[in-house]
Amino acid sequence: MATRLIRWSSGFAATTRPCNGMTPAELKSARNALGLSAEGFARFVRVESGRTVRRWEAGDRDIPGPVRVLVAAVMDSPAVRQHFGLSLPGDSPSAAE
């Protein structure tokens, strides 16, 4: 299985993991950095409830691939965050790449 080095521009520590991997801790860290509750994140990724998100974060359920891709895009790109009306500390009001 191929691995790659991930470095989120938001300052998250780099980690080596499978290309399609995201740990439960990384998901929770990203959600918290975006200022979203579990319920708010559930609405963002269009799942039924925050309980599902909490199960992903606890490692009780696998994080779906599309959620992993969306989180990576949101964390990597100010333009994607702006599109979804999200921000990270340090984003400028017109933070588009």
Can you give keywords for this protein?
97 residues; mainly alpha; two-stranded antiparallel sheet; 5 helices; 47% helix; globular; disordered N terminus
Rg result: 13 Å
The first-to-last residue Cα distance is 31 Å
Q: Quickly count the helices.
A: 5
Number of strands: 2
User: What's the overall geometry?
Assistant: globular
Helix content bin: 40-55%
Task: Give structural notes.
- 47% of the residues lie in helices and 8% in strands.
- It is built from 5 helices and 2 strands; from the N terminus they run ββααααα.
- It has a two-stranded antiparallel sheet.
- The longest helix has 12 residues, at 65-76.
- It starts with a strand and ends in a 13-residue tail after the last helix.
List the helices and strands and how they pair.
Elements: E1 3-6, E2 15-18, H1 24-33, H2 38-45, H3 50-58, H4 65-76, H5 78-84
Antiparallel strand pairs: 1-2
Brief summary:
The chain has 97 residues and is mostly helical. The protein has helices at 24-33, 38-45, 50-58, 65-76, 78-84; strands spanning 3-6, 15-18. Helices cover 47% and strands 8% of the residues.
